């Protein structure tokens, strides 16, 4: 994979059409532009998502996402699109409940909670049905819509997926898409996107808006290419959550006469 030095020197020379590194396109400006392109690609594609698991004690409700106690790796930028997961376990370590997804565990605005559930601010513990974000001065809290009810015979945890603020590359030998000493070599086809964004930024110094726009479009093309590659392969179809033909045959949660016997949580 190309190094930081490869990107801010040779790669940018090609895109800018000059090897100037002392007058207009100084080395410092080149390095800054490359790092900005790196941050923009990582943010738009969510290609470097981190995941952290937080223990949830009984009656716990809020967790500061900017605290390294909650997210040990730090560098929180925003929540990832995959969403959080809430799980409880029995004493043997078996999962007894999993809450996830936009239906069972959606994000809610505090204003929505105030309007829809006047009792959500109560200190009475219960099963979470949603989550929210609450900024407060220098903190950003992830909150459950009600304090967690965790009995003495179980444990609970919250899995949070988030987009990190990637660290700037400084040494010429640094490699992009590297976190905690591990390099995502599968992202090598997208390294050129960083150079295109940097060229888009630097072309503004020449007041060449058309050239800047062309480089931005090339950058966005790589972003789109990444999302296309990440889409599930194969055909896509829409189907009912419940198979009535299967129930009629006495299959899943139905008796042999076709009478549905679905569990309460499936009806």
Task: Record the SSE blueprint.
Blueprint lengths: L3 H13 L10 H19 L4 E7 L5 E3 L11 E4 L5 E6 L4 E6 H4 L5 H7 L14 E6 L2 E6 L9 E11 L13 E2 L2 E2 L7 H12 L6 H22 L13 H5 L19
Antiparallel strand pairs: 1-8, 2-7, 3-8, 4-5, 4-8, 6-7, 9-10
Helix pairs in contact: 1-2, 1-5, 2-5, 5-6
Summarize the structure.
The protein has 267 residues and is an alpha+beta fold. It is built from 7 helices and 10 strands.
Alpha-carbon Rg, integer? 25 Å
Strand content bin:
15-25%
Helicity range: 25-40%
The class by helix and strand makeup works out as alpha+beta
- What would the principal axes of the Cα set say about the shape? elongated
How would you describe the overall organization of this protein?
31% of the residues lie in helices and 20% in strands. It has helices spanning 4-16, 27-45, 101-104, 110-116, 191-202, 209-230, 244-248, and strands at 50-56, 62-64, 76-79, 85-90, 95-100, 131-136, 139-144, 154-164, 178-179, 182-183. Helix 1 (4-16) crosses helix 2 (27-45), helix 2 (27-45) packs across helix 5 and helix 5 packs antiparallel against helix 6. The relative contact order is 0.18. Mean pLDDT is 89; it is low at 255-260 and 262-267.
């Amino acid at each position: 994979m190309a190094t930081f030095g490869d990107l801010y020197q040779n790669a940018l020379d090609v895109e800018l059409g000059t090897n100037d590194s002392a007058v207009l396109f100084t080395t410092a400006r080149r390095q800054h532009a490359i790092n900005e392109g790196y941050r923009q690609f990582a943010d738009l594609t969510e290609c470097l998502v981190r995941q952290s698991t937080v223990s949830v004690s009984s009656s716990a409700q809020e967790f500061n996402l900017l605290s390294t106690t909650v997210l040990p790796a730090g560098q929180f930028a925003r929540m990832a699109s995959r969403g959080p997961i809430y799980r409880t376990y029995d004493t043997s370590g078996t999962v007894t409940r999993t809450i996830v997804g936009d239906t069972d565990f959606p994000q809610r605005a505090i204003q929505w909670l105030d309007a829809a559930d006047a009792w959500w601010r109560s200190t009475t513990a219960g099963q979470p049905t949603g989550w929210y974000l609450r900024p407060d001065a220098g903190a950003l809290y992830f909150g459950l819509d009600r304090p967690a009810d965790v009995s003495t015979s179980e444990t609970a945890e919250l899995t949070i997926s988030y987009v990190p603020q990637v660290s700037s590359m400084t040494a010429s030998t640094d490699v992009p898409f590297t976190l905690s000493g591990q390099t995502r070599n599968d992202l090598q086809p997208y390294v050129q996107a960083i150079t295109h964004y940097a060229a888009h930024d630097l072309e503004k110094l020449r007041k060449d808006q058309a050239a800047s726009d062309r480089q931005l479009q090339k950058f966005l093309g790589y972003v789109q290419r990444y999302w296309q590659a990440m889409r599930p392969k194969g055909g896509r179809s829409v189907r009912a959550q419940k198979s009535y033909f299967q129930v009629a045959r006495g299959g899943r949660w139905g008796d042999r006469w076709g009478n549905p016997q679905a569990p309460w949580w499936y009806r």
